[in-house]
Amino acid sequence: MTGEAAPTERFRGGTIRQKLTRTTTVVILTALVLATSAFFPYYVIAGRRAISRALTVQAQMIALNATSALLFDDDRAGKETLAALKADHNVIAAAIYSNGGRLFAAYEAPGSTPLAATIDTSTGDAITFSGLTAAASQTIVSRGRTVGYVRIAYSVRDLLVDVVRFLLITAAVLVIAVFGALQAARRVQRDLSDPITQLAEAALTVSRKTDYSVRVPPNHSVGELGMLIDTFNAMLSQIQARDEELDASARRYQRLNEELERRVAERTAELQAINKELEAFTYSVSHDLRAPLRRIDGFSGMLAEKYGPQLDQDGAHYLTRIREGTLVMGRLIDDLLNLARLGRKELTPRPTDLGVVVTRIIDGLGRESEGRTIHWKRDPLPIVQCDPALMEVVLTNLLSNAVKYTRPREEARIEIGVQQNGGAPTFFVKDNGVGFNMKYAEKLFGAFQRLHRADEFEGTGVGLATVQRIIHKHNGRIWVDAELNKGATFYFSIGGIPA
User: Fold this and answer.
1) Which pick of 94, 436, 441, 471 has the fewest CB atoms within 10 Å?
2) CA-based angle 46:47:49, to the nearest 5?
3) Cβ neighbours, 10 Å, residue 206
4) How far apart are CA 400 and CA 429, in angstroms?
5) What would the CATH number be for the domain defined by 345-493?
6) Looking at the whole model, is its pTM more than 0.85?
7) What burial letters (b/e) apply to 86-110, b meaning 16+ CB within 10 Å?
8) What's the pLDDT tens digit per position in 148-170?
9) What CATH architecture applies to the domain 16-164?
């Protein structure tokens, strides 16, 4: 490994002048090599195209001049036509064939191999290259009828010579360009290396000693580099001033931090006191408000039992309203307490079979659905990581709502299912109940928000607010899709929670 890394380290090391020289050489060589790489294929392709055009013209001329010789079976005239190819020293051999592919007349340059006595007549007109030889095929046509064929073998050695000459010229230009560029670069490098070295030494001193009082001697004879030196010196002056400001700011920050810590401690103590007050309020609601409510319910019950027959119709109605209001108030207090407890309850997630939970809830809803026709459709539900007690509250609210709001239907249809969308599963509860207008959907999950009158459907308007809070504690979300008199579908997902 050491032997492989050494050349790279030697290339990266050295002075600024050496690095500039190496960089200049590499850039020039790369540019010239890339240019040569681009022009060389073009030169070869252009040469082949020129040969193809020349061969095509020669083959067409031979075909035109040999037409009458073939028609009159005059092989001597055919040979004379081919003899004109002696003027081109690159023509190796040529031949004229009859319509059946039989050799009619031929020409061979001295020392060359003659063409075949017969040919394949299905090749058509074409130019082909093989090694140092190009071959041209041309069909001889007279009055729309094929009367024969021309074949010419052509040497491409001249193209090879031109390619070699091109490479030699390119190499010479490459050497001259590199030498000239290095000479020009050395003159510039002397003016650049000294100021850059001074800049590097100053930067190293600042880095090692954190001494911002260092300055580089100004040098305005090197253009942009002189501007860089001035800018570097100005930057050091600014850093030195800001360093002093930072020291003062750090002291101020320390004082502010100490003050902030004191305020946080005070705020924490206030929040703890507020939490204790909330707990005391919850206790008061649970005991102090329930006690008089129980007395109202008890005495109103005794009044109805003992003096009910003596009351007129209005009095009995008022007493009934009192007892109904007491029950509603009791349920409202229970819902409020449950909503408040949810805010303080810690999640205890564990693997929970939601299918078992749904079965238990439906069995518990038997009393509410007694005497009704309800078609339940349940998809297999997965085992998920959640708080089983809180998730049972969610499903109980959604399923009991579905039972309640399908009450006007002769045949209620309630579906519980799950959708897989590539991520966390999405659960849904769908019914064919009374539904609602979606423009009021935002109110649905607010506490004490109801979309139906109390005399139509009972409830306190806290259930869905409780459901939303539980879903949010599970890092999930809940939403609804509904249409008036066509039912509603509640969707919810459970996000990732610690195991």
Assistant:
1) 441
2) 65
3) 17
4) 11
5) 3.30.565.10
6) no
7) eeeebbbbbbbbbeeeebbbbbbbe
8) 888 888 888 877 777 788 788 88
9) 2-Layer Sandwich (3.30)
- Condensed to tens digits (0 to 9), the pLDDT of residues 221-244 reads 556 666 777 787 777 777 778 777
Report percent pLDDT > 70 for the chain.
80
End-to-end CA distance of the chain: 48
Q: Which two tokens stand for residue 330?
A: 């009791």
CB count within 10 Å of CB 195 equals: 20
Domain boundaries, given as residue ranges, for the chain: 16-164, 345-493
As a whole number of angstroms, the distance between CA 169 and CA 271 comes to 88
- Which tokens in the block code for residue 275? 């939490």
